[in-house]
Hints:
Layout: H1 3-23, H2 29-34, H3 41-73, H4 76-93, H5 99-111, H6 115-126, H7 132-161, H8 163-183, H9 204-210, H10 212-231, H11 235-242, H12 249-278, H13 280-295, H14 304-318, H15 321-332, H16 338-366, H17 369-396
Helix pairs in contact: 1-6, 1-7, 1-8, 3-5, 3-16, 4-5, 4-6, 4-8, 6-7, 6-16, 7-8, 7-12, 7-15, 10-15, 10-16, 10-17, 11-12, 12-13, 12-14, 12-15, 13-14, 13-15, 13-17, 16-17
Amino acid sequence: MSQLKKNLYLLMAANFLVSISMTMIMPFLSLYIATFGNYSQDHIQRWSGYIFGVTFLAAFLVSPLWGKIGDRHGFKPILIFTSVGMALSLYLMGEVSSVSHLFFLRIFMGIVTGFVGVSNAFIARQTPKKESGRVLGTLQLGSVTGMLFGPLIGGYLADVFGFKQTFYLSSIALFIVALLVTFVLKDTVTHTTNTTKNEKVPNTIAYILHIRVLTMMMIATSLVQIANFSLQPLLSLYVKELVPHTNNIALLSGLAFSATGFGNLIMTRRWGILGDHHGYEKIIGYLLIGSAIAIIPMAFINSMTLFIFLRFLFGIVIGGLIPLTTAYIRLASPISIQGEVLGYNQSARFLGNVIGPVIGGELASLFSISFVFIFTAFMFLLTYCLLQMSMRSDRKRKIELH
């Protein structure tokens, strides 16, 4: 087995465990906060939102920094540091006894949650450009699977072992990841702390804004997360509207949530292969239209079975957007700033995680949950139109990346 494949499979498994650690707290966060004192339900719900969301906010702010450091000094040390940092933060979460301590630990976890983005940059730099979509699509399977099963695994461990022990077990798993990265992962790319005299390192933000399609890729990345997270807090409420007389709201909501993840798993790698062969911009355009087509009917149906099926189709379509946008960035970015550009793309993902629930909640309260689906579909179509305009603009300016 080649070293690239060894690195790929190791980081895919590592991303699985990291994604679980990011999402496992969802089922029992409010219950865990309730063990700290005699709090009102409003207080618990408010702090549950703060504590869950602040991790993504911190990650949004620091992700480009990890990429910039990786460009200069290599990505492996960052992978080791972030995996140890997450392991330590999870262990300490099991030791806290106050809401404020848990809140600050979640901020710290967000700061060191650069592992998934840096692993993308690590693998992208070692991968031939013509295979980037397939390889990054394969890597994406780890984080998609972890986000899919994280709440289920976290809830199961909490029921069987308790809240504190769940944090300890996750901490041990990430310490093992750190050991594997240290002793098994091998960086096949030589890094230097200084560029050569003849090499001019471009300003990263100016470069992103100059390549219009690159800017649109980051907007699309954020939009995917907004679409996912704007609907997450509303799923159980919408399921209750569809089947008002059932006693299995939680189960049906879980099925609706998981259906998207299963769709991701089936097609993520295949979309990457298609992008390698036919062009990333072209396939991304098709996926943006397909996402809108899958979402619009959700606003008008009255069948739970059809809703789950549409969520599955939506998962199939959006499963290709993240690896294809990452592959395009690999193609479009100079090697000297590639990690930093990928860091900004990762920030765009975390920004979607933060603002998605806010947008969804506000639109649902002002209009209805059905309107959230229509708004999301409109945003996908708008992004497609802007992508086409940016492609024409780049062609007029004779910017050719292939």
